[in-house]
Amino acid sequence: MQNERTFQVKNFGRVIAVRGSVVDIEFKKNLPSINMVVKTGKDMDIILEVHMQLDDKHIRCIALNPTQGLERGMKAVSTYAPLKVPVGTETLGHMFDVFGNTLDNFVLPPDMERRSIHNQPPPLTERSTTSQVFETGIKAIDVLLPLERGGKAGLFGGAGVGKTVLLTELIHNMVKNHQGVSMFCGIGERSREGLELYQEMKEAGVLDDMVMIFGQMNELPGARFRVGHAALTMAEYFRDDEHKDVLLLIDNVFRFIQAGMEVSGLLGQMPSRLGYQPTMSTELSQLEERIANSKTGAITSIQAVYVPADDLTDPAAVHTFSHLSATITLSRKRASEGMYPAIDLLQSGSKMATPHIIGERHYNIAQKIRQTLAEYEELKDIIAMLGLEQLSLNDQKTVNRSRRLERFLTQPFFTTEQFTQYKGRTVSLKDALDGCERILNDEFNDYPESDFYMIGTIDEVKRKTAVNV
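RE: above sequence
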């Protein structure tokens, strides 16, 4: 009966122009509306999405898959339905593309529910108003940049400073401790990274509580532009229907904006500043506002954001900043010094770092660390010109504390064990705070700086020194 109903509402048109992945179609009547799917091609296997209505008989579509073999005059069919993806517990442990097809040869049950990728964010009346800290096991983040459960955190950085490494480490730490569902969304990233992540999660035994969805670098801009929406539809099912907490990891938000820029250019829209699409703010909001915590469950999101030419004033970075509750900025200078994770602690920040959320002690330690690091930053020029010995006794103490803190806030990762000689560590917030407090109190002045590098808890310094002696 359902198939008969679907067939009755089909409407046939014809292709009148093909320009790369932009296709114009003529319908004599009942023009499909924006975001509806239109199929064409010899076998009706080319999937298009309506982006513009040119007049009362013509629409302009963007192709979501390759358009080879498409020519003018070909038949097109509209089903008056948006793109839909499968939702349900059967999706756990599998990889999908933007159409909801599996990439790991798993055959989904034929009666699975499918939902539209275009949904509205939950209304304010249904959202939770409490703030909880989300522990990650990474010292620098938990102490200075606490993440929010049900919030959005961004990892900002240029090429090659460790965004994906930090993201995979967060997955590794959280999936084991996180009693919920994890969702990984790869937007315009390399196929190699997707495959490596899949294999790592399988080996770690956490794939059964995870869903992966990819719109890879080699796919058309239309598919890359919609894969984030598809991932959110799958995540919303677990939040709203299963009442679970969902950890949504997006790699990379800049590629989503870039795909929107390509789509905008294909549609012939005049670009705005630095070549970005004039609708960038709206498009980003439609994606980001759906990531929210309701009274039944939460979607906590951690997003990597590529920063072109390390310029944090780039419109893509600026527009993303406004949606986030925590910003983790990665520094090329710290990466070149081998300080991993290469987080610029003074340029990063979190809205959770207030006394009434994280507590007075945590807040005071974090502020003291920031103050010490900021003072050291100001002294660097004097040290470069005159040397450390020319500083006052107080300034020398500040430098010693800062250098030990910087090294203590590095951490060996589980995901990089095979590339380094360091075994991965997770550190509880209590141990991380104790370590920072003891360094600030000058308890470790007699220990060499190098002993603080790539360790877990502060007690490892003493063990390291004992071994060296």
